[in-house]
């Protein structure tokens, strides 16, 4: 028996113990439920993985039983590429503007220009180093003779060590490729047999080129100087009629500067040069190449953009393109609102033989194009 004196004290303690026991049981039940749920999830995941292992996965297929060849069959690969080109022959022919052909003629890579005009027109005026195949005549024997000379000329051109093989078809003034069967036969020869990587037709024809770049064309009555000028290397035209890129050879050629209507030249060499020439205004913007100077792109933009806005034709140059090329890339990024990779690819096609200085190109990587303006070029730190 419990004495009534102790009873009031004893009862509350028993209640506390009961509560503790109940809470422990509740917690243990909750833990048991959670453990059961985890076990169910694990079993489901294991069953899924087992099923996926049982199914044949094409990516995880065992190795082929046939032995892998030790050497690559380049002849087979070449035939496959020819088949691909032949399959999409209609898609390969692309338009090329007069400015595009001007730049292609300056990049010193493989190019075959086929003039499809009449023989008389070709003799009168033609693009230097072009070949005539008269598709206006009905004399098939004459076309055959011209075609054979074209093949031999092409073979001599292909001896150049160049992976890029290009052909441009030129007629008088058409904006679309010719639809007659003779042209199609000529086109198929390059698309299927020779596997040209680039096949173009000159948009606007010969008239568009001779109107803008008459110095690239020669005729029977052309002098030796005119013939040499027609095959000279001119500055690359970056922005049509606005911006050119070149070197010291170009700035010293009065004929080139005048015929390209260049108003202002900017020299980006290490040492300023005072040129006493009256045919173009020359500005010096010194870049210290030896000490790998940080290029002040914002100052260059402040100099170049107002001149372009005034309609001036600019010529940017240095000794060997290595400094001026990244500067031109920055200008193109701003003018066309292009990212770095697109602007770089666009400029490198104009002068593929030039290697840029890495210390300048690395500075280009830090330019934030979104905040790039003539008075404020921000750099990502």
How do you describe this structure in short?
The protein is α/β, with parallel strands linked by helices. It has 15 helices and 12 strands.
Structural summary, described in words:
The chain has 15 helices and 12 strands. The model is unreliable at 1-11, 59-74 and 373-381 (pLDDT under 50). Helix 7 links the parallel strand 5 (166-170) and strand 6 (198-202). It has 381 residues and is of the alpha/beta class. The longest helix has 48 residues, at 7-54. The chain has helices at residues 7-54, 74-87, 89-92, 98-106, 119-124, 140-158, 181-193, 205-212, 224-230, 248-251, 254-259, 297-309, 324-336, 340-348, 358-365; strands at residues 93-96, 112-115, 126-127, 131-132, 166-170, 198-202, 217-218, 236-239, 243-247, 264-267, 281-284, 314-318. It is flat and about 120 Å long. Helix 2 packs antiparallel against helix 7. It has a 5-stranded parallel sheet with strand order 1-6-5-2-4. Strands 8-9-12-10-11 form a 5-stranded mixed sheet.
Observed structural traits:
disordered C terminus, 12% strand, 381 residues, alpha/beta, five-stranded parallel β-sheet, single chain, five-stranded mixed β-sheet, 12 strands, 15 helices
Radius of gyration: 36 Å
Number of strands: 12
Q: Report helical residue fraction.
A: 40-55%
* Helical stretch tally: 15
Structural class: alpha/beta
Query: How far apart, in Å, are the first and last alpha carbons?
Result: 86 Å
The average pLDDT is 78
> How would you sum up the major sheet?
5 strands, parallel
SSE string, helices as H and strands as E: HHHEHEHEEHEHEHEHEEHHEEHEHHH
**Gross geometry:** flat
In the sheet with the most strands, the strands line up as 1-6-5-2-4
Strand content: 5-15%
Q: Extract low-pLDDT stretches.
A: 1-11, 59-74, 373-381
């Amino acid at each position: 028996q419990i004495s009534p004196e102790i009873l009031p004290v004893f009862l509350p303690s028993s209640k506390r113990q009961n509560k503790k026991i109940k809470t422990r049981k509740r917690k243990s039940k909750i833990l048991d439920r959670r453990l059961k749920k985890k076990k169910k999830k694990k079993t489901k995941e294991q069953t899924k993985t087992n099923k996926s292992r049982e199914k044949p996965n094409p990516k995880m297929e065992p190795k082929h039983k046939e032995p892998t060849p030790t050497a690559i069959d380049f002849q087979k690969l070449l035939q496959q590429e020819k088949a691909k080109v032949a399959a999409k022959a209609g898609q390969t022919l692309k338009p090329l503007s007069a400015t595009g052909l001007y730049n292609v003629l300056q990049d010193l890579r493989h190019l075959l220009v086929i003039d499809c005009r009449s023989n008389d027109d070709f003799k009168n005026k033609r693009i230097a180093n072009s070949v005539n195949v008269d598709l206006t005549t009905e004399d098939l024997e004459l076309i055959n003779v011209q075609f054979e000379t074209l093949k031999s000329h092409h073979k001599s051109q292909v001896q150049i060590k160049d992976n890029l093989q290009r052909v441009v078809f030129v007629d008088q003034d058409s904006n679309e490729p010719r639809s007659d069967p003779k042209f199609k036969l000529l086109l198929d020869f390059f698309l299927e047999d020779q596997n040209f990587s680039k096949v173009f037709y000159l948009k606007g024809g010969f008239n568009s080129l001779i109107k803008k770049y008459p110095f690239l064309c020669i005729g029977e009555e052309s002098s030796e100087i005119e013939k040499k000028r027609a095959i000279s290397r001119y500055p690359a035209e970056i922005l049509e009629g606005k911006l050119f890129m070149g070197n010291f050879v170009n700035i010293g050629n009065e004929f080139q500067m005048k015929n390209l209507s260049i108003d202002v030249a900017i020299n980006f060499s290490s040492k300023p040069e005072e040129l006493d020439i009256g045919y173009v205004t020359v500005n010096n913007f010194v870049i210290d190449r030896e000490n790998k100077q940080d290029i002040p792109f914002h100052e260059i933009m402040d100099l170049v953009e107002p001149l372009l806005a005034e309609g001036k034709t600019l010529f940017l140059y240095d000794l060997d393109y290595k400094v001026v090329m990244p500067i031109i890339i920055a200008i193109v990024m701003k003018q066309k609102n292009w990212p770095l990779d697109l602007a770089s690819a666009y400029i490198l096609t104009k002068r593929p033989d030039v290697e840029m200085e890495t210390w300048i190109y690395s500075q280009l990587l830090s330019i934030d194009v979104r905040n790039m303006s003539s008075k404020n070029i921000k750099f990502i730190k």
